[in-house]
Design a protein that fits this description.
- With about 350 residues, the protein is mainly α.
- It is built from 15 helices and no strands.
- The protein has one domain.
Length: about 350
């Protein structure tokens, strides 16, 4: 029986590839900041802007699959909350032991506790902490979506695009990089807006609404979004020397939701509407679902794999160019991490967590 919706696994694969590429930094992700021709600079910007869909898509998948379920709070904590808590603890310990072995950590309980609580052992594990928070408020979000009408969802999406998107662009052009600290926008937090949108697209939008006309409209909206982002990035013109861990000169705002919705819509249209599970060969179905089920493990180890495979990118860059080398390196990291994830899923104890 092909009960697992294959398009969710395809979305997971796309999202993790984006996340991995996002972590390539000057070797791939922000090539736009390095000396190159203007056409190449714009191309690299577009790639980097698209890459931003990775984490939002993961949250949209979670919303699509979890917000409509009937589940007691006790079951939620047993099945999900404690699982993610266990992942944070166990993999923080694993990464701590690894860093200790290479001299990048201090051998003390206080160091381990401080860095686990503050999410400093592996910076990319921030997603685990955010997802943990999402699971804690999941019962409330489930009640919320039951009460929301289609117009409510549309209102939320429009508000987000206007306030976090259009208004942010206008204010930036006027010289303001942020709003008043007292203008709270809780419903626009990633653990709320993206799951709600994912739930809406999966459970409230009728199947007949997924068609070529709707896709063309979204693709056009995405094109406009890319134009805005590239133009604003060029206008911002942030020097490479001023880049930080979380700000690499690329202009982004709430309009990224347009790209997120487009990718979700496109993959659902192609692999759920036009080609449903029954039309996919059993072999292809098993392969995609097997890979999709191991994506969480890929996320947990890709940083380590990336560190030990940097020489591949350095070697390939001399022969095929920096961008093709980064793409190939991205795929190699993915494949190796996938193999490790398959192995971890066979280890007693870890299997239940992954």
């Amino acid at each position: 029986m092909k009960n697992r919706k294959i398009y969710f696994d395809i979305l997971r694969i796309i999202a993790i590839l984006c996340v991995i590429y996002n972590h390539t930094n000057e070797r791939g992700y922000f090539l736009y900041a390095l000396p190159c021709s203007m056409p190449l600079k714009i191309f690299y910007m577009i790639v980097a802007e698209f890459i931003a869909i990775g984490v939002p898509v993961f949250f949209m998948i979670s919303g699509a699959l979890l917000l409509g379920r009937d589940e007691s709070i006790a079951d939620l904590y047993k099945k999900r909350v404690l699982r993610i808590f266990g992942v944070i603890v166990i993999f923080s310990l694993i990464q701590f032991a690894y860093k200790l072995s290479i001299g990048e950590a201090e051998a003390s309980v206080k160091y381990l506790a401080d860095n686990t609580i503050n999410q400093n052992i592996v910076p990319s594990y921030w997603f685990l902490y955010t997802y943990f928070a999402f699971l804690i408020i999941l019962p409330l979000l489930r009640k919320l979506v039951k009460a929301m009408s289609e117009d409510d969802f549309k209102y939320l999406i429009i508000l987000y695009l206007l306030i976090e998107g259009a208004l942010a662009v206008v204010l930036y052009l006027l010289g303001y990089e942020s709003y008043s600290m007292f203008f709270e926008r809780p419903f626009f937090d990633r653990i709320i807006i993206f799951p709600l949108v994912g739930y809406y697209l999966e459970n409230r939008v009728p199947r007949e609404k997924y068609n070529s006309t709707g896709l063309k409209k979204l693709l056009f909206a995405s094109l406009v979004t890319f134009v805005v982002f590239v133009t604003m990035t060029l206008y911002r013109n942030m020097p490479y020397e001023e880049f930080t861990t979380y700000d690499k000169g690329l202009y982004t705002c709430g309009l990224t939701l347009v790209l997120d919705i487009t990718v979700f819509y496109l993959i659902k249209y192609l692999f759920d509407i036009r080609i449903d599970n029954a039309s996919v060969s059993t072999r292809a179905y098993k392969m995609v679902t097997m890979v999709g089920s191991a994506i969480f493990g890929v996320y947990l180890v890709e940083g380590n794999v990336r560190y030990y495979t940097e020489f591949i990118d350095a070697f390939l860059s001399d022969y095929v160019g920096v961008f093709p080398a980064a793409v190939v390196w991205d795929l190699i990291i993915f494949v190796i991490s996938l193999m490790i994830s398959f192995v971890m899923k066979r280890i007693p104890g870890l299997k239940k967590l992954l």
